[in-house]
Amino acid sequence: MTAPALIASTPRFALLAPLLIAVQLYAGAVQADELRVPAKASYLTSDGAIAIIGNDGMQPLIEQLDALFIKQHPGVHFAVRGEGSSVGLPALTAGATAIAPLSREAWLGDMHGYEQVFGRKPLDIRIGYSGWGPRSSGKTPPAVYVHPDNPLAQLSLPQLAQVVTAGQTGGDINTWGQLGLTGEWAARRIHVYGLRDDGGFATNQRMDRFGGLPFSVHYEALDSVAEVLKAVASDSHGIALTGWANTSKLAPGLRLVALSRVAGEAAHGAGYDEVASGAYPLSSYLHLFVNVTPGQPLEPFIKAYLEVALSDEGQALVKAQRDTAEGYVPLSPEDLATERRKLEGL
User: Fold this and answer.
1) Gap between the Cα atoms of 319 and 212, Å rounded
2) Residue ranges per domain, the chain?
3) Residue 54 forms beta bridges with which residues?
4) What is the full DSSP assignment across 160-183?
5) What digits encode the pLDDT tens for the residues 124-175?
6) Is 143-276 a CATH 3.40.190.10 domain?
């Protein structure tokens, strides 16, 4: 027998039963109202579905998160369109999507459009890492590569900045001897390869990681990741920083250089465990960008969705993507705690 029925069957408390039942029904209504999607929201499709537009590789994960959300909050439905990370923030700016999934950092052009319209950055909730490797069945995240004959063991991020850009505080690094190589390597010039400085990956790395300084005069810009990797594969004195690639197919002989955040710290590769621990310095995050006005609460259903993505169940869905072509990795405990704190009070 339920609590209201038990009370109603007791004469002494019969008059309280309608009140108790009314309170319970009101509480349920409040909970439903709190997650109600605004009826005229611009991101609703013609049939009332919540549009989520962004990275195509993340679509299977987003659909699984949608299903988990619907399981916990029935009555909501979604329309996912995987059109690429470059589409996500413009769609958020236009109000065409409730959430913009990106599997890389936001490029300057994407973010500038949003900032010009709203005068601020969107809320950025990170839910995992984008890729690990090298591996035979998927993409390695951004990494530094050298020819297999090159003895360079590791680099710090400041050293990498001195190699690929000009004008760093510690001076430019132009020869392999400046990186500690000896013998016939010491006096040889470093041949730097990378993608074009055209607003995409290379520009983003230069601005975000290297203080916005220009690329070295020795930086040879090429049109594609495949061309960059093939250039290093045919040049024993070459080095490259480039984005996601299946190196086992494009240039299987190349060696990925272990990296440290600062000199003197342990260097790490892009293997699964190193990425999952948050130790690999060039990891890129999986992002869920949303629009929130400072000083105003986040829309309740959007906050609930982000909480689902950061829940233990949501992180398990990210982990289940490990052996897919994208190779997503759940957040480290430290990064997960940071993201959960972001949602507090919103």
Assistant:
1) 34
2) 50-130+284-343, 143-276
3) 82
4) HHHHHBS--TT----BGGGGT--G
5) 999 999 999 999 889 899 999 999 999 999 999 999 999 999 999 999 999 9
6) yes
Q: Give the type of residue at 122.
A: P
Token pair of 292 as six digits: 């929130």
Same fold, 50-130+284-343 and 143-276: yes
For residues 6 and 229, what is the distance between their CA atoms, to the nearest angstrom?
Answer: 74
The letter for the amino acid at 151 is P
Q: Which residue, among 141, 138, 156, 150, has the nearest Cα to 270 in the 3D structure? A: 141
* Environment class of 266 (CB within 10 Å of its CB; exposed 0-12, middle 13-18, buried 19+): exposed
Cis link prior to 134 (omega < 30° from 0)?
yes
* DSSP state letter for 214: P
* Cβ within 8 Å of residue 197, ≥6 positions away: 203, 206, 215, 221
* Residue 148 CB coordination number (10 Å): 13
Q: How far apart are CA 200 and CA 196, in angstroms?
A: 8
List the structure tokens of 208.
């975000």
CA max distance for the chain: 99
Q: What is the pTM of this model?
A: 0.87
Structure tokens at 274: 């190193």
Fold of 50-130+284-343: D-Maltodextrin-Binding Protein; domain 2 (3.40.190)
List Cβ neighbours of 228 (8 Å cut-off, separation of 6 or more).
193, 194, 195, 222, 240, 242
- List per-residue pLDDT tens for the chain, 346 residues long: 444 443 344 343 333 333 333 333 333 333 444 577 888 899 999 999 999 999 999 999 999 999 999 999 998 999 999 999 999 999 999 999 999 999 999 998 889 999 999 999 999 999 999 999 999 889 899 999 999 999 999 999 999 999 999 999 999 999 999 999 999 999 999 999 999 999 999 999 999 999 999 999 999 999 999 999 999 999 999 999 999 998 888 888 899 999 999 999 999 999 999 999 999 999 999 999 999 998 888 999 999 999 999 999 999 999 999 999 999 999 999 999 999 999 997 8
